[in-house]
From TrEMBL:
<dbReference type="Pfam" id="PF00171">
    <property type="entry name" value="Aldedh"/>
</dbReference>
<protein>
    <recommendedName>
        <fullName>methylmalonate-semialdehyde dehydrogenase (CoA acylating)</fullName>
        <ecNumber>1.2.1.27</ecNumber>
    </recommendedName>
</protein>
<dbReference type="InterPro" id="IPR010061">
    <property type="entry name" value="MeMal-semiAld_DH"/>
</dbReference>
<dbReference type="InterPro" id="IPR015590">
    <property type="entry name" value="Aldehyde_DH_dom"/>
</dbReference>
<dbReference type="InterPro" id="IPR016163">
    <property type="entry name" value="Ald_DH_C"/>
</dbReference>
<keyword id="KW-0560">Oxidoreductase</keyword>
<feature type="domain" description="Aldehyde dehydrogenase">
    <location>
        <begin position="15"/>
        <end position="477"/>
    </location>
</feature>
<dbReference type="InterPro" id="IPR016161">
    <property type="entry name" value="Ald_DH/histidinol_DH"/>
</dbReference>
<dbReference type="InterPro" id="IPR016162">
    <property type="entry name" value="Ald_DH_N"/>
</dbReference>
<keyword id="KW-0520">NAD</keyword>
<dbReference type="InterPro" id="IPR016160">
    <property type="entry name" value="Ald_DH_CS_CYS"/>
</dbReference>
Length: 498
């Protein structure tokens, strides 16, 4: 049985006494055991990162960027292996794993332009013979804590930019599917990142709490559920750190009566059921304006759900794999039962699905609710499974009110042929990422990713331009070289423009 350890100061170590099972969700069989780092192990990783910082900070940005070019090559060369790890531990279908990895690689490509991104701001002659400029210096040791649902991509949102900016890093991946993040970090070292600059500790709350409170850690990036994100933000900020904590979501699609309903239904299928609904940008609610459009959409969704192929992620014919764990399957199934009890109409029931040859897997078929109302738990809570709720309203304003009143504000989209309505929606909806006839408006790597309300605690978004600012601190320098024959008296007031 394989034991998954840590990567500390360039070495693979597996010394902790506590371990946890890593399960293949398609079979519920044991894949490996992962070490759960003790406080002392995490402190060793932080010490390695701190020791590596002065030399790494002094490496010119162009040389740090060249390592990122090599990392991109290595990620592409090892794509099949990484995607296999993703599918075996997370369960997502191989094509989806490829898409996840591609999005991660795009972040590395953006980081390759680091010298350009780190260019400061310069002003000549802000006063007589006085010049002023701002530069962006690294912070020191940074930490990243990542969720199970994007085991390769979310770590790649964080450490390539942090490290390229001159910081050193300790990553704590999800203990449920840790292998891809560890393997990719190893590729980082192979690309030329020196020992100690990038470290990986596997673990649970004990590891996280150590990262959150150790005074040597300057900044923490977190992605996960909202209750944990709130805790991370409060604890990290109280310990004086810079923190960005990305939380959960409940993403709505607004379907206008004039929308191309065939395209909208196809888009909703991928957005609601792709990756078994375990995406923070998954569409889990469709708010439809008008009874006629709602009836037509439900019919089209029913037809498409009937053709959806659910099964083992390694079979490329499948559209949707299993849920991450049997406990999560039970939780999502419980929400389907609760929706029926609350009075919503269960149009397609995915419960009880058994996949031939994978009878023990955590499978749930696509489920579809109609006539869901605000106040029902299936609308209020993030279910994080293949459950799509349809809500019926009479006007666009009522639909926007439902979306704006929801506690989460990660992503949303509108399907319409009306440009004026689309523009009004984008201007006034209280959500961080908006799609217009685009169901999953995940920003590309050269924009930044982030939600509003309970979906993000902190100010700066992930990756893209915001991440350059998150992983650096501004220093502004004002310089004057007075001529040696000029003698000036003391001044006791602000210098005025003479
Ligand atoms: P999670 O909150 O359970 O775990 C995330 C990380 O926090 C893991 O590394 C875990 O070990 C650690 N953790 C868990 N409980 C902790 C505790 N009590 N104290 C300290 N650390 C703890 O999230 P998950 O189930 O792995 O991921 C799914 C969630 O992540 C969903 O809510 C999803 O919406 C969210 N998510 C959000 C985004 C985003 O960008 N907003 C992206 C991906 C996932």
């Amino acid at each position: 049985m394989q034991t998954i350890g840590h990567l500390i100061n360039g070495e693979r170590v597996a010394e902790d006494t506590r371990t946890q099972e890593v399960i293949n969700p398609s079979t519920n069989q044991l894949e490996a055991r992962v070490c759960l780092a003790s406080k002392a192990t995490v402190e060793t990783a932080i010490a390695a990162a701190e020791a590596a910082y002065p030399a790494w900070r002094a490496v010119p940005p162009i040389k740090r960027a060249r390592i990122m070019f090599r990392l991109k090559d290595l990620l592409e060369q090892n794509a099949n292996k990484i995607c296999h790890l993703l599918t075996c531990e997370h369960g997502k279908v191989l094509n989806d794993a490829m898409g996840e990895l591609q999005r991660g690689i795009e972040n590395v490509e953006y980081v390759c332009s680091l010298p350009e991104l780190l260019k400061g701001e310069h002003c000549r002659d802000v006063g007589p013979a006085i010049d002023s400029w701002s530069e962006f210096q690294p912070l020191g040791v940074c930490a990243g804590i990542t969720p199970f649902n994007f085991p390769a991509m979310v770590p790649l949102w964080m450490w390539p930019m942090a490290v390229a900016c001159g910081n050193t890093f300790v990553l704590k991946p999800s203990e449920r599917d840790p292998s891809a993040a560890l393997f990719i970090a190893q590729l980082g070292l192979e690309a030329g990142i020196p020992a100690g600059v990038l470290n990986v500790v596997n673990g649970d709350k004990e590891a996280v709490d150590t990262l959150l409170t150790d005074p040597r850690v300057q900044a923490v990036s977190f992605v996960g559920s909202t209750p944990v994100a709130k805790y991370i933000y409060a604890t990290g900020c109280a310990a004086g750190k810079r923190v960005q904590a990305f939380g959960g979501a409940k993403n709505h699609a607004l379907i206008m009566p004039d929308a191309d309903l065939d395209n909208a239904a196809s888009a909703l299928m991928g957005a609601a059921y792709g990756s078994c609904g375990e995406r923070c940008m998954a569409i889990s609610v469709a708010v439809v304006v008008g009874e006629q459009a709602a009836d037509a959409l439900i019919d089209k969704l029913k037809t498409q759900i009937a053709t959806l192929k659910v099964g083992d992620g390694r079979d490329t014919a499948n559209d949707m794999g299993p849920l991450i764990s049997s406990a999560h399957l039970e939780k999502v199934t419980g929400y389907v039962t609760r929706g029926v009890e609350e009075g919503a109409e269960l149009v397609v029931d995915g419960r009880g699905l058994v996949v031939d040859g994978f009878e023990q897997g955590n499978y749930l078929g696509a489920s579809l609710f109609d006539r869901v109302k605000p106040g029902m738990a299936i609308h209020a809570d993030e279910i994080f499974g293949p459950v799509l709720c349809v809500m019926r309203v009479d006007t666009m304003e009522q639909a926007m009110e439902i979306i704006n009143n929801h506690e989460y504000g990660n992503g949303t989209c509108i399907f319409t042929r009306d440009g004026e309505a689309a523009r009004y929606f984008a201007d006034n909806i209280k959500v961080g990422m908006v799609g217009i006839n685009v169901p999953l408006p995940v920003p590309v790597a050269y924009h930044s990713f982030g939600g509003w309300k309970q979906s993000l605690f902190g100010d700066l978004h992930a990756y893209g331009p915001d991440s350059v600012r998150f992983y650096t601190k501004r220093k502004t320098i004002t310089q004057r070289w007075p001529a040696s024959d000029v003698r000036e008296g003391a001044q006791f007031a602000f210098p005025s423009n003479r």
